[in-house]
Description:
Elements: H1 2-13, H2 22-37, H3 44-51, H4 53-76, H5 78-92, H6 95-110, H7 114-122, H8 134-181, H9 193-217, H10 222-232, H11 241-252, E1 256-262, E2 265-272, H12 282-309
Antiparallel strand pairs: 1-2
Helix pairs in contact: 1-5, 2-8, 4-5, 4-8, 5-8, 6-7, 6-8, 6-12, 7-8, 8-9, 8-11, 8-12, 9-10, 9-11, 9-12, 10-11
Amino acid sequence: MTLAFAYLIDLLVGDPPRLPHPVVWMGKGISALDRLLAKRRRSKWAERLKGILFPLLLVGGVYALSYWLLKELYALHPWLGLALEIWLISTTIAVKGLADAGRGVYKALQGGDLALARQRLSWIVGRDTGHLDSSEIARGGIETVAENIVDAVTAPLFFALLGGAPLALAYRAVNTLDSMVGYKNDKYLHLGWASARLDDLANFIPARLTVPFLVLAAGKKGRDAWRLARRDAKKHPSPNSGWAEAAVAGALGIRLGGENQYHGVKSFRAYLGDPVEPIAPGHILQTISLLYRSTALYLAFLLLMNWLIF
């Protein structure tokens, strides 16, 4: 029941700003490594070999440290170890944080405050938001919530089932590395290659395992969610992100993807879904509802697997 308690803690409490968060420490560690490793530029393969140090040191270090800490606390008293493990797993998932971020964008749109909606969207996406209209802001909110159903909930729970808090934290380190150094720009094209590929590998199973639960959560629209996931997921530039996004698009009867702008440069992302109806702010709330229902079903499935196998 460790996973269930961790899920409930995140659902009710989220990430209180006054409490230390492991991802913040991971970010500081990545920044320190980045300053060290990016000092001198070398050849393509030398950069790629050097880039392996990012996951080797950070992911390996996070796993080893958390494993040692839990081992010591469990030895001191089982309840201390269990309490820490539940809290650590809860920090790797973000149901409440994801839902709150989406609702923040929705409320600003509903209030007619486009400037505030653009600002709130800019906190959770990498694209430029200063020029977006209401529909495009809503699309950004929907895509972010949909994509992060895997990154922020189902994937860390999957690894927590397999290896407890240490493996869930290791996954979060992989995910944080990808977000910070996995970009395909000049600086990180080769240096961040290993981090980006490791993130792709880590999310491969969870991304696909999430789809059936989005289909179930979609109810009567489940058939459309399944059909669009199978048809369009591979159009996404990420080998994993398209699965949840396409399923959500099918469930809502909308089309995601299209033109985005990053630092003033336009970029077109393949369309996912069919435009049965135009995107509206209310679709953000529907996506949040899918987030809650699909992850609850997914958690129940993991608990059943844990009972049957482990």
